[in-house]
Amino acid sequence: MVLDFFDLVYLLLVLTGIIILVENRKERILYLISLQGLLLVIPIFQLHSFYELHTWILVAMVLIFKATLTPYILLWSIKKSKMNVHTKPRFGFLANFFFFIFGLLASIGVVNGLGELPQGIDKIGVIYVFLLMYLGVITFISRNHWIVLICGFIMIENGIFLLTLILHNGLPFGIEFGAFTDASLVIVAAAALQIRGDSIKKMGDNSLWT
Amino acid sequence: MDLGILSIITGITFLLVFLNLLFAFTKSQEKVNYWAGLVILLFIVVLMSWWMEDLALQWVLIEATTLFGALLISMSRNEKSIEVAWKFLLLNSFGLSLAFIGIIIVSFGIHSQVTTNGNEIIGQINSHQNRLVETGMWLAIFGYSAKLGLFPNHFWVSDTYAESPSQISSVISCLFPATVGIALRAFIKMDYQFTNPHFSSASGLLILGVVTMFYSLWTLNQTNDIRRMTAQIALFHSGALAIFIFLNPPDEVFYYTLSASVTVKALLFSAMGIFRIDAGTRELKEVKPEEGLNKWSTSLYIFSLGMAFVIPFSPFFVADLLLLKVGFGIEKFWIIFVPILGLVFFLVALNKLLPLLNIKSREFLPQHNRTLRIRMMLTFLILILALAIGAYGVYNLSNGGFSNAQ
User: Fold this and answer.
1) ipTM given for this complex
2) Using alpha carbons only, what angle is made at residue A97 by residues A92 and A103, rounded to the nearest 5 degrees?
């Protein structure tokens, strides 16, 4: 296994995932999510030609949905609900570390069972992709605040996007667009629910029936 | 019975529930017209997903239903409903993410021609029996089972059905299990192509279904909340549907069972909504005998409960017979315990509800009269539709129909 430039990008994606898992400042987490979105652009060129229209459509979708729209919606929600975002930094739980080690070993095991990979793809890159998804799952389970929880979900989606890219060379445009839109709408729905919940708490419950 | 007829039956059922929502919504002060578009969109997306052969595209549409569903659950506009909608969104999105990873891995595992077309994958899977495909099927089935509401991801079901407006509970409970059933069927067919799996994912679905049925029975015994009781019935049927899917029945039987699920769930939640408003409380113990109950609303609810289990000519009664026929045909004689468990569930529920028939009858209270009459009329139409499907099933069965259900 030789670490090349693209593997380095996958490694950076995993490292941003680790910071998101343990970081406690919500604004910083959103910047990291945006950075992850930007980093996702690079692997597209590993598998798609620079001269293909599909490549640039994918780049545009990643930049719009993953790097811009998603963090913006969450940032807007933070401001809309006047959330306290500058809490003290706190390192994550020790349990997360052990879960991470378990995930690393499991990812190595799964990737070894994958067999032949598409040309130009290193096993180490795929291990990083599985780890990114796994980090998303841990964040989703271990963090309480809804913003961070949704960031865990975004990490899972980012990992799935990379896995699709690596194993399938991407999906047809319609499905890719649908998956991107769905992921964004999950975040919109989550933000809408939380803001609605805040408004109900402030204005009182006006339901007529229990 | 095929997918086309199922779509038509679902369309009619949806229309009746939708009219109920438009003209008899009482749960909160929300303007229903604003939400009506979202309900229609949910229905269209669900129906489109049924007809998709491409598993990835089908997944995209099913994921979209989660978003619409979450927003609709919050329609009650109270703190509890927001919590429930949040839980629904998280558990379903998480499950569906796993399902998508499974789809990607299965289609990669086929290798020779990477495709997400369900039929093409099923055609190739026989010659690609490897651990990767098996893992992908596991992930897909487990992921989708969360959307069906099976153990251990069942926690959203009773909360969602219990805290949403009854019309929204009707829509979700009749559309979602059918949708997931159709999505899961492709993976079960793949699993049956495997000659020697390490542990069959179809068997995994069976275990999840059985545990869910027992869990719902146990929870039913604990509660006297009319909404939660109805939610447990829906959960029980989700478990039973998982067992049905495990058996991999022929298309005709499969779509008949789904049409039973669609109509009877809509009926059950509509009848529950009427009874709940008429009783003025959701707790059975808080029903005041001296204030009386409308006998039509009480009888309709209890009759709907029977329709969900044992009443001859009810679609679920026929579905149970078909379950036995399919199960015995493949020498799975233990299947007899599924209708028996259903009977036990019915008796436990009936034991809680029967005392209501002793309460003196009265007219609907004047403040609810118009709303409840509209609801009664629409619910009776759903009942007629369900009875017609049941009668069709009995006629077909007694004349040698469903002959391929062996």
Assistant:
1) 0.80
2) 130
